[in-house]
Amino acid sequence: MHREEAFALWVLRACALFLVVAMASLVAYLGYQASGLFTIDQVSLGEFLTSFRFDPDLNHVGAAVFLLGSLSVTGLALLIGGPLGVAVAIFLSEIAPPALASVLTLTIELLVGIPSVVYGWLGLLVVVPFVRATSLTSGFGFLAAGLVLGVMILPTVVALSLEALRAQPQSLREGSLALGATRWETICHVLLPAARAGLGVAFLLGIARAIGETLAVQMVIGNASVFPHDLFHAAATLPTEIVLDMAGAPPGSLLQHALFAMACVLLGISLLLVLLVRMIARRS
């Protein structure tokens, strides 16, 4: 092996080792800080995950309201951005002229690079006033956050769905059309079932994009530590609660331990989504 190749191999191994050590250190630090909630503060795991009462001053640090808030907002965003993203991908892959599809695909890819604060600011200027005018409420809440997140995950869902559809062999389309199926029947009954693994990956990565979003959601959700009974009232999620309280949490306090435990819950959800994506990709 030449000296240059050996040096390059050593650099690549060092980079890989650094990445592994950095990730392991991050997980270990989060786990160590979060463990204080259950060892020092004597809070049970069941109480932390199932209690809806969050009042650190009175030794109540239930995270269920924030966990359900995160899952609810993410689910609403997926209901908005998921079907719309697949529909746009179908249009770009099967219907739009090549020149138009190329321009629109580039535009959608550029949307991925827009900072989340821009989405949040547009949500404040457009979505919140719209919700306020139509519901006669403050405008801040689940619906506003879901609409903003639905737009944010749209480029991810479109790009991955488009890739899954374009990866299907042309023989599937030709065979279906040769048997007398229409273009819409080919799309609905041949292409979508054949690309279901790729579409599933697109939805899962859209969920991963949405569930950890902080700034844009914080700007429009209202940040109330309660679980509302409808879509038009203020709420909170795990990331927004961590951002709001972490700066003022005294070191070693019950609040700080609870926030680190919330971060561990978010990390666990993200790891679960990654494992699901790998399982789907392996089966496909």
- By CATH, the architecture of the largest domain is named Orthogonal Bundle
CATH topology of the largest domain, anyone?
A: MetI-like fold
Rg (CA only)? 23 Å
E-strand count: 2
Helix count? 12
| Poorly predicted runs of 5 or more residues | none
Mean pLDDT: 89
What structural class results from the helix and strand content? mainly alpha
What spatial form do the alpha-carbon principal axes imply? globular
Q: Order of strands across the biggest sheet?
A: 1-2
Q: Roughly what percent helix?
A: over 70%
For the record, the CATH class of the largest domain is Mainly Alpha
- How many domain regions? 2
Largest beta-sheet characterization: 2 strands, antiparallel
Distance between the termini: 38 Å
- What portion of the residues fall into strands of 2 or more residues? under 5%
Provide the CATH superfamily of the largest domain: MetI-like
Element order: H for helix, E for strand: HHEEHHHHHHHHHH
